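Translate structure to sequence.
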């Protein structure tokens, strides 16, 4: 179950508060994990899948405001008192997930590491939503495409993504024909190879160079898993000084 970065970053003591309640399952692409305005009962820790957090639009469409891979955890809200939200949790890339009842997450928050996990995951979703708003407003479709693809590879620790151009068009809020043209250009320049339902990134460094600056604002130092490890190391250093 430690394929998820947040769970792997917890000490044995902190994990013992979760372990009896964790279950592992597989979700396919398109699985809805939670709906807007409905209280969620579980928090999801991706092991090999990717979750999109989307906001529904009045025309029936939706737009992504964040995504969660191995670096974090996803749920409707990381605030025990929150009851009003508009997001929807959607499995964008199918895979394995570890589930934990929300009640057990909040029951363990007196533990400093668990309290940090909740805060860092909440911060991560908010940070993405803010960055996505600016990105959508000012950056070109091709740079946003490269940014999303690069980040998906980073968060899933793979260069092979099982998803369609329709999926990318949906999360970015752009036309499928636009995605097709961008993908053709990237393939011609040797950055990716694609066929229906599968995209292989051939040069991740060049893909990042072609992406917008948002990659820098949402890099690994801001990941919940990274922050949990940093906090744990800092605590261990303080304890060793006594």
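Result:
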């Amino acid at each position: 179950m430690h394929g998820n970065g947040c769970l792997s970053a917890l000490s044995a003591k902190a994990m013992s508060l979760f372990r009896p309640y964790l279950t592992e399952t597989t979700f396919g692409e398109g699985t809805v994990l939670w709906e807007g305005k409905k209280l969620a009962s579980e928090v999801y820790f991706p092991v090999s899948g990717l979750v999109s957090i989307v906001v529904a639009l009045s025309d029936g469409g939706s737009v992504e405001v964040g995504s969660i891979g191995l670096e974090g955890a996803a749920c409707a809200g990381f605030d025990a008192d929150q009851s009003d939200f508009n997001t929807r949790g959607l499995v964008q890339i199918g895979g394995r997930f570890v589930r934990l009842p929300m009640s057990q997450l909040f029951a363990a928050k007196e533990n400093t590491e668990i309290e940090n996990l909740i805060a860092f995951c909440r911060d991560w979703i908010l940070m993405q939503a803010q960055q996505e708003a600016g990105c959508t407003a000012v950056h070109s479709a091709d740079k946003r495409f490269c940014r999303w693809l690069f980040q998906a590879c980073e968060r899933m620790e793979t260069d092979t993504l099982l998803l369609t151009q329709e999926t990318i068009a949906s999360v970015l809020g752009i036309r499928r024909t636009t995605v097709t043209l961008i993908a053709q250009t990237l393939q011609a320049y040797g950055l990716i190879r694609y066929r229906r339902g599968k995209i292989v990134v051939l040069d991740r460094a060049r893909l990042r160079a072609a992406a917008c600056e948002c990659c820098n604002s949402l890099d690994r130092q801001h990941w919940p898993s990274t922050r949990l490890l940093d906090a744990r190391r800092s605590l261990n250093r303080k304890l060793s000084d006594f």
